Amino acid sequence: MDWQEGFQRYLVRYSKGEVIFHEGDLGNEMYVIQSGKVRIFKNINGMDQTLAVLEKGDFFGEMAVLEGIPRTASAEVEEDCELIRINSANFVAMIQANPEIALRIMRKLSIRLRETTDQLQRLLQVSTAVFSSYDAPPVQVAPEPPKEARRVLAHLISAATGRTYPVTKDVTIIGRYDKVTGLAPDVDLTDEDPHRYVSRRHAVLLYEEGQWKLIEEIGAVNGTFLNKKRLPNGVPVPIRDGDQVTFANVTLTFRVVQEAG
Length: 261
Description:
It is built from four helices and 17 strands.
């Protein structure tokens, strides 16, 4: 990617088994993986627990740059790797050059905030239940009704593998699983893209007012092509049954199953 070429002077190499940093270390650097794999782990009750295994395009250590806090987990090289090391001085330049990472960092922080809010809400519910249980009769909880299977509105069919990806929602996110944030798109093209050219959140397939539209997400890289014509970033473009769409280097055919209502 173009932004990475300008950051080659910050490239560092690590061998398998090397520890990049330990939990509790101070630091002001984050890392973007160019090649290889890095294991993120945390010591829990005397045992090392793997949190994630990151690979090309993933990043880690960003909290040290943003907040200057000690490392909350350790990072060890699982496969010889090349990393771009970003410190607080060149962090802004990196964000400006690669908005996709900026969006992923914001999503990661948003997830952490939502998880904290959920935990506080659960604690509040438990506290309320404890105090009210002295006087209140037992509450009967009605069982949840079975979930209805979503009807398939359209398919995306891979030209390379023949795999079929169902589209079951009016707003469908297309991309790759993001190990950093834990977010998975509705249509996950990870298995179609071993070289990791498709962005984690690459495009949105939208159905509104009786028409399907395709939108390349802000921050997506390597392009989105409809019938071999590159789409502008962030602009809805009509897509029709039988159209060919390419996300970076992954080509699929769009087929409408039935009218969405």
